[in-house]
Design brief:
Helix content of chain A: 10-25%
Structural class of chain A: alpha+beta
Structural class of chain B: mainly alpha
Helix content of chain B: 40-55%
Radius of gyration of chain A: 15 Å
Radius of gyration of chain B: 21 Å
CATH topology of one domain in chain B: Arc Repressor Mutant, subunit A
Order of helices and strands of chain A: EHHEEEEEEHHH
Largest sheet of chain B: 3 strands, antiparallel
Strand content of chain B: 5-15%
Strand order of the largest sheet of chain B: 1-3-2
Shape of chain B: elongated
Number of helices of chain A: 5
Number of strands of chain B: 3
CATH superfamily of one domain in chain B: Winged helix-like DNA-binding domain superfamily/Winged helix DNA-binding domain
Order of helices and strands of chain B: HHEHHEEH
Distance between the termini of chain B: 63 Å
CATH superfamily of chain A: START domain
Number of strands of chain A: 7
Oligomer: heterodimer
Distance between the termini of chain A: 24 Å
CATH architecture of chain A: 2-Layer Sandwich
Number of domains of chain A: 1
Largest sheet of chain A: 7 strands, antiparallel
């Protein structure tokens, strides 16, 4: 499980849109996005030659969004196999964004044998430029 | 004669490593050589690719420091340098924090506050 959070000087209503609007999403992650932000709707993101594919699980503006995350060409991390949950909490005029990426195979089998290989898809995600 | 392990001259940056890993054929090659040292021909036998394509993939993997090459007579044997994958775990850990940092930048640039609060 990976967690990350950040404080952003804008209200949740503004920040939330950056997770459901393809044009806003690609301002901070990836180059191309195809999003249908409702439960069961497509979450498709291309970045650095890698395709992340999944679907929205929960869309609760402006508090919470959950989507699945996987890489079709990587058997180790197929679409639907991992889940990203993002929460938006207002704090003053700011938003605290907390993100949790669960069920990455890496955590099930740390470092040994296939561990490294299983995380590659997610690693490719780290290739951002 | 002692076969000396070939080290890349300069440590390959994470970009080179990640670029090398961004290709499914190259990941498959690493999978093949993670437990066994294999000659190029035997690696190639697992793919529907030309020998030339395979050797290009091997070159990319070597340059990224992911693959060790050892000569034995006329053969070249390849194996995974697993230590080179170690730093990648931390990169993975940094993926979302990095992305969120860019999100922050992007939102705050698009929605500047007239009065900024003092950072504490």
């Amino acid at each position: 499980m990976i967690t990350a959070s950040v404080r952003i000087a804008a209200p949740p209503e503004v920040v939330f849109r950056y997770f459901i609007d393809p044009q806003l999403l690609v301002t901070w992650i990836g180059e191309r996005a195809d999003l249908d932000a409702r439960p069961g709707g497509t979450f498709a993101l291309d970045f650095a030659g890698t395709k992340a594919r999944g679907s929205y699980v929960a869309v609760e503006p402006p508090h919470r969004v959950v989507f699945t995350w996987g890489i079709p060409q990587d058997a180790a991390l197929p679409p639907g196999s991992s889940t990203v949950e993002v929460e938006f909490v207002a704090d003053g005029g700011d938003t605290i964004v907390s993100l949790t990426h669960r069920d990455l195979p890496l955590d099930r089998e740390p470092s040994h044998q296939e561990g490294w290989e299983r995380c590659l898809a997610a690693l490719a995600a780290a290739v951002r430029q | 004669m002692t076969p000396e392990p070939k080290e890349p001259e300069a440590p390959a940056g994470p970009d080179a490593v990640l670029r090398a890993l961004a290709d499914p054929h190259r990941r498959e090659i690493l999978r093949l050589v993670q437990d066994a040292e294999l000659p190029a021909g035997q690696i190639a036998a697992n793919f529907d690719l030309t020998q030339q394509a395979i050797s290009q993939h091997l070159t990319v993997l070597k340059r990224a420091g992911l693959l060790a090459e050892r000569r034995e007579g006329t053969r070249r044997l390849y194996s995974l340098r697993s230590e080179s994958l170690q730093p990648l775990r931390s990169l993975l850990d940094e993926f979302w924090p990095d992305a969120l940092a860019r999100l922050k930048q992007s939102v705050e640039r698009a929605h500047p506050r007239t009065e900024r609060r003092r950072p504490t």
